[in-house]
Every structure is written in C-alpha cells, then in structure tokens.
Amino acid sequence: MSIARDALDNHGLIVGVSPERFRAVAMPLLFDHLNAQCEGTIAVNRQARIVWINDKYAEKVGIRDPASVLGKEIEEVLPASRLREVVESGLPSIIDLMAFGDEHFVVTRIPLRDEDGTLVGALGFVLFDRARHLKPLMSKYTSLQTQLVATQNELAKARRARYTIAGFIGNSPAASEIK
After folding, report:
1. Does domain 38-129 match CATH 3.40.50.300?
2. Which residues contact 59 (CB under 8 A, 6 or more apart)?
3. Phi/psi of residue 68, each to 5°?
4. Exposure of 56 by Cβ count < 10 A (0-12 exposed, 13-18 middle, 19+ buried)?
5. Which of 72, 69, 109, 73 is nearest to 89 (CA)?
6. For 93-134, how does the pLDDT look when each residue is reduced to its tens digit (9 = 90+)?
7. What superkingdom does the record give (predicted)?
8. What is the helix, strand, coil percentage profile of the chain, to 5?
9. Fewest Cβ atoms nearer than 10 Å: which of 37, 94, 97, 117?
10. What is the C-alpha to C-alpha distance for residues 39 and 132, in angstroms, rounded to an integer?
11. Contact at 8 Å (CB) between 85 and 108?
12. How far is Cα 105 from Cα 129, in angstroms, rounded to an integer?
C-alpha cells in the first residue's frame, strides 16, 4: 500500500489521491511509526479488554507471555490505566503520567474508530519510560504552580480586613459595648 512517485507533486505532497486512499495508506504507517518509536503499545476493545500488547510493553510491565493478558480487563493488568476512560468518553489523553509500581511512564491514549466513526476501542502508547524526558516541561509547570500559589496567597492577604474591632482604641461606654 505505497503511494506511487507520480502521485506526488514537486514538493512531495500527494495530489489526486482521495481522502479514503490517503487514510488507507497513512494510518498503518502512522501506527507502525508510533509503535516503533514508543516504549510500548497496548490496545483495548470497547469493553476495555486487552486485545493487543506489543512485546516491549509486556516486558516493561513484567508480563512474560503477552498472549496471557489478552481478553483481560485493562485494570487487571495495569491498575493505573485510564484507557477505559478514553473508551467511555471517546476523547484522547495526549500526554499524561501513568504510575506503574515505582515508575512513572509518559503516555498518550487515543480512541480508535472504525470507518463509520463508531468507537471500537483505544490505543495506549508509552512515549517515555521515565518522566525525566519531560524535565523542562515539568520545571516550567512547577514554576507556574509556585507562582500561582504565591499570587493566591497575596490575593488572600489583600482581601483580608485591615482593621478589626479588637484593634479599636477607646474606653468610652459606646466603644466598650462595640468590643
């Protein structure tokens, strides 16, 4: 299922190819690329049962025989997985951290749809097996969180009453009654 060279213009862009044909060619290539570049890939069906897991993922999470987990609910194998949420909502989770034992994986989860647009399952990709790859992003996030907390504290301080009845000075009967 390759695209002929004469189907490309002088910039390498596909011309005269229907969207259906492009999708038929591009989707397997995209999947193969993601599968090769990622640290692991897993797929679940509409009921969030595992239908496929690649060897890299199985090895990473300590599964000796990948076939042994086929048909199991995703949470039985990966308790912290959120693939079920993707299947139920139909919405992707582009970058997230997933805990597994003492490790954290950077993952992406995407819904799978058939030609009619019907949700049939979800794919999960382990992008990085260590969150350290996201250190620059996490540093920025931590900095922004720190700034947010400081700003919230300043705002709360500014909103507090500056004067209270306890600070009222005076000994008159009216002042004593107010205190």
Report:
1. no
2. none
3. -70, -15
4. middle
5. 109
6. 988 888 777 777 788 999 999 888 899 999 998 886 555 666
7. Bacteria
8. 45, 25, 30
9. 117
10. 14
11. no
12. 5
Amino acid identity, residue 122?
A: A
What ranges make up the beta strands (E) of 46-153?
A: 50-53, 93-100, 103-113, 119-128
Burial of 21 (0-12, 13-18, 19+ CB in 10 A): middle
d(CA 27, CA 113): 12
What is the predicted pLDDT for the residue at 60? Answer: 86
Whole-number pLDDT of residue 179: 60
Which amino acid appears at position 50 of this protein?
A: I
Residue 133 sits at φ, ψ, to 5 deg, of -65, -20
Q: Rounded distance, CA 27 to CA 108, Å? A: 17
Q: How do the domains of the chain map onto residue ranges?
A: 7-36, 38-129, 133-160
Alpha carbons 95 and 138: distance in angstroms, whole number: 12
How open is the CA angle 68-70-74, to the nearest 5 degrees?
110
Say how far apart CA 73 and CA 81 lie, in whole Å: 10
Output the pLDDT for position 131.
58
- SS3 call for 46: coil
For 156, the 3-state DSSP assignment is: helix
